[in-house]
Amino acid sequence: MGVSTSCPEKGIAVVTVDFPPVNALPVGGWFALADVVRSAGRDPEVRCVVLAAEGRGFNAGVDIKEIQARGSEALVGANRGCFEAFAAVYECEVPVVAAVQGFCLGGGIGLAGNADAIVASEDAVFGLPELDRGALGAATHLARLVPPHLMRALYYTARTATAAELHAHGSVWRVVPREGLRAAALELAREIAAKDGELLRLAKAAINGIDPVDVRRSYRFEQGFTFEANLSGVAGRVRDTFGTKGA
Q: What keywords tag this UniProt record (predicted)?
């Protein structure tokens, strides 16, 4: 359980997240993920990072039960941890390929949205159930995956989009059977890692530099509204219904 790194092939590091039962990460998990991704990117032998997960789904966001138990301390920690993990993926010195299976929700959107490429299983779904959980955020990253009006509709309704739909929008590289997900992600990573390592790092910095939206500042702006919702009491009122029948 936790975050681990393996190097199955020359030039490729696989960062795997494993927080049973649904990969809803506690505060410490987000910071650990940020540290591991940054470390992999700094390794001069690594030319591509694959971000993967064990279990039923890629990522279910933050651990709501931890926030309910620890209150504002956990909320601030989760905000900071997500910010660091999303930034680590975006700022990783080499390209990051996200291998997404099952559900990719909340914080999962922040990770996948900041990756350089996404390979998804046929059962993968992407969405932000934030309004159902007393939170706001990651619209910055969902906007990198779908067109603006679809992003708004998905955000307001807390509905999900399938991997096939995202593939049609061009944000998912390939959609494959679940059993072939890791192989497909490694295939893309292998093609990327075949390039000159120094040039890849320059390319990553150059592409980040021409992005029309500063994802760090944009996401931080969103997080301010999450904190406002918490201070006003509305976030707690909604969170208290989490996991209850009919919620």
A: Lipid metabolism, Lyase
